[in-house]
Amino acid sequence: MPSSSTLSGKRALITGSTSGIGLAVARALAGHGAQVVLNGFGDANDIDGLCAELGAVHVDADLMTQQGCETLMADAGPVDILVNNAGMQHVSPVDEFPIDKWNAIIALNLTAAFHTTRLAVPGMKEKGWGRIINTASAHSKTASPYKSAYNASKHGIDGFTKTVALELAQTGVTANCISPGYVWTPLIEGQIPDTMAARGLSRDEVINDVLLAKQPTKKFVQPAEIGALAVFLCGEEAGNVTGANWSIDGGWTAE
Ligand code: NAD
Fold first, then answer.
1. What number does the ligand 1 atom closest to the CA of 139 have?
2. Cβ–ligand 1 contact at 87 (below 6 Å)
3. Tell me: domain 11-181+222-245, CATH 3.40.50.720, correct?
4. pLDDT (tens digit per residue) in 138-191
5. What is the pLDDT of residues 158-168, one digit of tens each?
């Protein structure tokens, strides 16, 4: 099914790729010939269908724990492209923020990327080629209230990515962030009820006055647009692009 073979021979692991942005990135990389390893939760039949569609394999691992990350990397085998994308959100005032939610968000959005990266890098260095892409967020560059853990994790992944890029600068391995604004995925849909409660707003007010209010284009980013950017970052032409944090946010962080 690939429409182009520019990534032929490359093995790409995308975490959190059974849904939303990760799935769009997996589709885009597979469409350019990469051999894809999926990860994430979901209905077993649906995941089997995705594997068939993309010619992919799925590794079932919970990245909330170090052991889950190590299982993922062992079962995925050596990868040329690592996309750290799995993430979660919780919306709550800081003085009421549930401690278990704080710990879970930092574990999944930040610490999991450390574990997968540290385990992927030796093989990439040995090959003299690799691409690490971390799905950060506009919230890696700016903040919104009631998202203390998420904002901290995303600012953290930006700093982590720059550090990895500098350490690997002469190895043929690049590391970059993609920072979307609001993308219509289950993660965004899931935070609408809590935002309604935290701000005392209706569903439409949350969508138009909170979410899209941030984006000058007044449009949600499309998952496929993020997939296309990931394909570019994986290409040979992007070999000198490293340590960057690419906004794809309808102009949000330009303001
Ligand atoms: P999503 O909820 O649609 O998908 C999340 C994926 O992560 C799913 O495949 C899910 O099964 C997987 N996942 C969740 N917990 C996991 C765990 N413990 N271990 C392994 N996998 C797990 O979310 P999305 O909107 O596609 O978000 C993907 C990434 O993009 C996240 O890092 C998110 O912070 C970031 N992001 C999203 C938006 C947006 O507007 N949707 C904006 C900026 C950044």
1. 43
2. yes
3. yes
4. 999 999 999 999 999 999 999 999 999 999 999 999 999 999 999 999 888 888
5. 999 999 999 99
For residue 88, report the distance from its CA to the centre of ligand 1, in Å. 6
Percentage of the chain beyond pLDDT 70 is 99
pLDDT 10s digits, 48-71? 999 999 999 999 999 999 999 999
Expressed in angstroms and rounded, the spacing between residue 18 Cα and the centre of ligand 1 is 9
The Cα 21–Cα 184 span in angstroms is 9
What does the alpha-carbon distance between residue 51 and residue 237 come to, in Å, rounded to a whole number?
29
Half-sphere exposure of 122 (CA within 13 A, CB side): 5
Domain with CATH 3.40.50.720 in the chain: 11-181+222-245
Q: Report, as an integer, the average pLDDT of 88-105.
A: 97
- Which sequence positions are flagged as catalytic? 150
Assess whether the C-beta atom of 156 lies below 6 angstroms from ligand 1.
Answer: no
Concatenate the DSSP letters of all residues of 198-232 into one string.
HHT--HHHIIIIIIGGG-TT-SPBPHHHHHHHHHH
Is the shortest distance between the CB of 223 and ligand 1 below 6 Å?
A: no
Cα-to-centroid distance, 2 and ligand 1 (Å) = 25
